[in-house]
Write a structure and sequence with these properties.
three-stranded antiparallel beta sheet, Rossmann fold, binds adenosine-5'-diphosphate, globular, 421 residues, alpha/beta, Molybdenum Cofactor Biosythetic Enzyme, Chain A
Length: 421
């Protein structure tokens, strides 16, 4: 089927988050991991390409995203979505703005919106300032993120150094007045030459208004949630038929592994909760640097069948900083990612077919190690985190890729029990 909406996500968990929200509509959503090597075939109405370019050098991110855009265009898409994190993870040299400007140029678009809000997950934007729950972004635990520490909450200020064209705001007071008012505001900003419009959203209803007002833009940008209303908008305007199939759940042998490389506050809580009742092993970047992953591999394969063990590098900010001071940020991250990727492969070889993975970069590394190229989207475990199904060496597997901050404290156990349902 011809693709209606082509989406490009800057990391793997962001892509599954977006795909999961689009799949809530019941429509088939296909998620490609990395830039597809072959021309489009067996395409779904909603195609999401997951890149791993959040912290890549700008030139690299831009050229990958442009290649992804070209693939999605050849799949038939004429509307596009650039998905980044709902906490706007980026530095002054970040990729969110440069990629948006490059995609706009390729599409001949003169304006786009920026709406990372995800009210169900506590991400809201008011007067251009991003909040995580009740805290401004720069006061939230995101200020200590290992790769993209967020030290400002104002999206206009965060975006301005990343783009060449003017940045403006459509605030909540306008959004609250409805679709027509928002459209008028965006048009007025366009007349003033504002190419990049940050749009406030504090509640789910705001997202419906924003999506309706902006759905005809060739390019939308944001977190996943502002894309959620799009399938129903396309149904209403007749571009999407009502009866698209959803993914079927494969039969899997018992046994799971939980791998966590996220150091977010929520993942720390999730690791603490799960390790209270399941066998768990903590990876230490310094030990990995000296002795490699052998110890963890030995531990993992020695765990009793059906015990669903956890291996984690998840640690408190002080201990992350200590490892980074000794090894460097990139080296510490890479050691952990490589170790968790090797553990995933070993688990698969040992017969494990269910994988719960925490962390965006971590998920990218694990998915790559398992050789995943395409995922079918299944049931949601928590807002923005679905189970997905794929095949590895001819075997069905289930894998969920959770971005750091998502899910409740009992996410790991909930994920495993949801799969049994
Ligand atoms: P999130 O989704 O929370 O951002 P990511 O996996 O994207 O999680 O990013 C976390 C990064 O921190 C990864 O590169 C990971 O390898 C790295 N990391 C994990 N544990 C540690 C640790 N104990 N010390 C230093 N870096 C770590």
């Amino acid at each position: 089927m011809t693709t209606l909406l082509g989406c490009i996500a800057d990391d793997f968990t962001g892509a599954t988050d977006l795909a999961g929200l689009l799949a809530r509509s019941g429509v088939r959503v296909s998620l490609r991991l990395g830039l597809p090597k072959d021309p489009p075939s067996d395409t779904a109405p909603f195609e999401v390409i997951a890149l791993k370019c959040r912290t890549a050098p700008v030139d690299e991110a831009v050229s990958e995203c442009r290649a992804a855009l070209a693939w999605l265009k050849s799949a038939g898409a004429d509307r596009f979505f650039w998905k980044y994190c709902s906490t706007f993870d980026s530095t002054d040299k970040g990729n969110i703005g440069p990629v948006a400007e490059a995609l706009m140029a390729d599409l001949g678009a003169t304006q786009t919106i920026y709406c990372p809000a995800f009210p169900e997950n506590g991400r809201s934007i008011f007067m251009g300032n991003l909040f995580v729950g009740q805290q401004p972004l720069a006061e939230s635990p995101m200020k200590d993120h290992p790769l993209t520490p967020m030290r400002d909450s104002n999206l206009m200020r965060l975006l301005e150094p990343q783009v060449s064209q003017p940045v403006g705001l459509a605030d909540r007071l306008t959004v609250a007045r409805g679709t027509d008012a928002l459209r008028e505001r965006i048009e007025a900003l366009s007349t003033d030459g504002v190419a990049h419009v940050v749009v406030d959203a504090v509640a789910n209803d705001d997202l419906g208004i924003i999506a309706a007002a902006c759905c005809d833009m060739p390019l939308l940008t944001g977190g996943s949630a502002v894309a959620m209303p799009l399938p129903n908008i396309y149904r209403a305007d007749g571009s999407l038929a009502a009866d698209a199939p959803v993914a079927t759940v494969p039969d899997l042998v018992p046994g799971a592994v939980v791998l966590s490389g996220s150091c977010s506050a929520m993942t720390n809580a999730q690791v603490a909760a799960y390790s209270a009742s399941a066998p768990s092993f903590q990876l230490d970047p310094l030990q990995l640097a000296e002795g490699g992953v052998g110890l963890a591999l030995d531990w993992l394969v020695a765990q009793p069948a059906g015990s669903n063990p956890l291996v984690y590098a998840t640690a408190a900010p002080e201990s992350v900083r200590a490892a980074q001071d000794k090894l460097g940020v990139a080296k510490a991250g890479a050691l952990v990612e490589e170790a968790l990727a090797a553990l995933a492969t070993a688990a698969f070889e040992a017969g494990i077919r269910r994988f719960v993975v925490a962390g965006g970069e971590t998920s990218g590394a694990v998915a790559q190690a398992l050789g995943l190229s395409r995922l079918d989207i299944g049931a949601e475990i928590a807002p923005g985190v679905p189970w997905t199904f794929s095949r590895v060496k001819g075997e069905d597997i289930a894998i969920t890729l959770k971005s750091g901050n998502f899910g409740n404290e009992d996410f790991f156990a909930t994920a495993l029990s949801k799969l049994e349902d």
